[in-house]
Design a protein that fits this description.
This protein is α/β, with parallel strands linked by helices. The protein is 39% helix and 21% strand. The relative contact order is 0.20.
């Protein structure tokens, strides 16, 4: 059940206790920076967790891509920190370069390896990106980079496809998300990942875990452990939010707001792709 069942008012600010977002992949054409900026403007919080893969260092090393809209996202986050929001950055595998700065604070943004968040109703949630539980990333790094390149190709094809859908007045549709849900091996990979993360959360004595990494937003209980994945801002435009009473909800911004304004946002993405 989504906490934001009505379209979000463009002029209103919606207050929640905590927000978790991950897998923004700033520095890639696939990043939905326009929708992300709109989300950051509309939703205010006491604590903002950036749960890894915020900046895509892998992609930037291959080909530099940094439009003004990505700068705007960074500036918006820093502005929130200046205005009193606690901003915590948990690096992932695509921005692993930031792990060397764990324990430091930049512009009011705390950099941590992982952390524990205590909800308003007293639950302890372990916050981690999740890449440490991905066997491909940990044991076959070359294969992870190959898979990342294939994923980027799928996203580029998907952008062209959705430009055509937008011109026909059809809503956004994610090819890679569909494949992940339908292909047997992908479903098995997601399930194995979720179970491994939940086991580690239990070992640490936490009531639950919040992670990202696999671009699949979900809240469910695994063997008594609350598993929360905040999704991504490349395909699904989702965030995990904690309400004032401690309830946790997945906010699907593509549905809750105008988030993915298909014609404008997808056309902008395709234009950036053509300029590469």
């Amino acid at each position: 059940m989504n906490a934001f069942t009505e379209p979000l008012d463009l002029e209103a600010t919606h207050r929640v206790r905590t927000v978790w977002i991950s897998d923004l992949h700033l520095g890639t054409p696939g990043c939905q920076a326009g929708a992300l900026l709109e989300f950051l403007r509309r939703v205010d919080c006491d604590t903002l967790y950036l749960v890894g893969d915020i900046i895509d260092g892998w992609q930037l090393r291959r080909s530099w891509y940094w439009p003004q809209s990505h700068n705007d996202v960074v500036q918006k986050i820093l502005r929130k920190a200046r205005k009193g929001t606690r901003v915590v950055f948990v690096p992932g595998n695509h921005d692993e370069f930031a792990r060397r700065y764990v324990g430091h604070s930049f512009g009011g943004v705390e950099v941590v390896e992982d952390c524990v968040h205590v909800t308003a109703d007293g639950r302890r949630l372990w916050v981690t990106h999740g890449d440490l539980f991905d066997g491909v990333v940990q044991c076959a790094r070359w294969l992870a980079h190959l898979g990342d390149a294939a994923y980027e190709f799928t996203l580029r094809a998907n952008r062209w496809f959705n430009v055509a859908r937008a011109r026909m007045g059809l809503p956004y549709w994610s090819l890679s998300r569909y494949l992940k849900l339908k292909v047997k091996r992908a479903v098995s990979y997601v399930g194995d990942f979720e179970a491994a993360v939940a086991r580690e959360a239990r070992r640490r004595g936490a009531h639950g875990v919040v992670c990202g990494h696999i671009h699949h937003a979900e809240i469910r209980t695994i063997d008594g452990v609350l598993y929360c994945n905040d999704g991504d801002w490349v395909e699904s435009l989702t965030a995990l939010v904690e309400l004032a009473d401690g309830r946790l909800e997945i906010l699907d911004f593509a549905e809750a707001g105008s988030g993915r304004t298909a014609a404008a946002d997808q056309s902008a993405s395709s234009m950036a792709f053509r300029l590469l």
